[in-house]
Specification:
about 400 residues; alpha/beta; Rossmann fold; 7-stranded parallel beta sheet
Length: about 400
């Protein structure tokens, strides 16, 4: 494999482009895939124990709590968490994520390791489809003796090719998607026409359906507003939805001038690092800005797991993709202030956006002032019931466990 990739990289760019346009690389990668997977399945059927590895990149991207708990109780599956921050992050950021994850998983009594080569592995779960997320040894073309599974770390609301047609989408044994609409997108966009897709519901459903266990807010009297911010502020960012640069000072002033509010600043885990690289920000300005939200009397900095943050809030203001949908699980008012995305939204994304207020409905201040007049409650309720409940009258986790048991019994 290394030799083939080395020789491919030596080819002139026009020839490589021609190969890509003809999907020859995709065709070659698919050769023997089903035969190899069948052989692995037959081997695993005979094993007394099946070792399952969940790749964890950060606490915020961890979406497998309930599935992991089910496997811990299972007589055959032996799950373990692999702490593997994105390799494109700086060493400092990777170390921060590892420290946070160690604390998080210790509190849950989940077994974890830092070295993939130190453990047995039969099934590997990925949370991100991006090639540059994991080191070479964890890329699916180097794990042909294992079953590779992909559970999206987010609700994708666009028809971008990278959301459905990356190397992992094509090489994974199974892609576990949240809705039939996402499976339809895969059929239309992915080279393999979504043959490896199973619809199981969304990973965080299992946690959203229970009561909050903690309350991260300081006040019970003030309106609790989440300001969630995407990281796509650089010129080469794919999503281009972030409006942080436009609203950074306005939101800071909103907090200062409205002591009747409590605002949780919920940035994407990669925003700080992108701000460090931005020509108008840099480390000193970024750190000072984050410190404002950490230290002010009516604000706080929200990072890591956000389930209870959502459940105990009153409303959200955001420019994100996945939160357009995820916040609908708590069925509270939500205002999207991101860049225009109509042209790239899939059908599912368009319907989800209809359940969000936008700046065409309200200014930020008007949205906060009129939370008690919630005209989109019915739209959100109908969307939740129709698209956000897992199939088969089961949880997301139980659907996956049942599928695995069915294939491996």
């Amino acid at each position: 494999m290394f030799l083939k990739r080395f020789l491919y990289n030596l080819l002139p760019t026009p020839l490589k482009n021609g190969i890509n346009n003809l999907h020859l690389k995709d065709f070659i990668q698919q050769l023997g895939k089903e035969k190899r997977e069948t052989a692995v399945i037959e081997r695993l059927k005979k094993q007394e124990e099946i070792h399952v590895v969940f790749i964890a990149m950060s606490v915020a991207f961890w979406k497998y709590d309930e599935l992991f708990k089910l496997m811990l109780q299972h007589k055959k599956f032996k799950p373990v968490v692999l702490l593997q921050p994105r390799i494109t992050d700086s060493k400092e950021t990777q170390n921060i994520h590892i420290e946070q994850m160690e604390k998080f998983f210790k509190e849950r009594n989940f077994p974890y390791v830092k070295d993939f080569k130190s453990i047995k592995s039969d099934i590997v779960f990925y949370a991100q489809p991006y090639k540059n997320s994991v080191p070479e040894c964890l890329r699916p073309y180097n794990l042909k003796d294992k079953l590779t599974c992909y559970v999206p770390y987010a609700f994708f609301i666009s028809n971008y090719s990278w959301a459905y047609n990356s190397m992992l989408h094509k090489l994974a044994w199974k892609c576990f998607y949240p809705t039939e609409l996402h499976k339809t997108n895969a059929k239309e966009i992915c080279y393999n026409q979504g043959k490896n897709v199973e619809v199981v519901g969304y990973s965080l459903y299992d946690q959203f359906k229970t009561e909050a266990k903690t309350d991260p807010w300081q006040s019970k009297e003030k309106k609790r507003i989440i300001w969630a911010v995407h990281h796509s502020i650089l010129n080469n960012d794919l999503a281009e939805c972030s409006t942080f640069l436009k609203y950074a000072e306005a939101m800071k002033n909103l907090a200062i001038e409205n002591q009747n509010l409590e605002i949780a600043f919920k940035p994407h885990p990669h925003l700080k690092e992108h701000l460090y690289k931005h020509e108008d920000w840099g480390k000193e300005k970024t750190d000072a800005y984050f410190d404002f939200w950490k230290n002010s009397s009516n604000t706080f900095f929200a990072e890591g797991n956000y389930i209870d943050l959502f459940k105990t809030s009153d409303a959200m203001i955001h420019d994100c993709g996945s939160f357009t949908v995820e916040y609908l699980y708590v069925n509270k008012p939500i205002l999207y202030i991101g860049n225009e995305r109509d042209k790239i939204l899939c059908n599912f994304g368009k319907m989800a956006m209809e359940a969000n207020y936008t700046l065409n409905d309200f200014s930020i201040e008007e949205f906060i002032d009129t939370l008690h007049i919630d005209k989109k409650n019915q739209i959100r309720t109908e969307f939740l019931q129709k698209y956000l409940i897992p199939p088969n009258h089961k949880t997301f986790s139980q659907n996956i466990l049942d599928l695995l048991e069915g294939y491996l019994k």
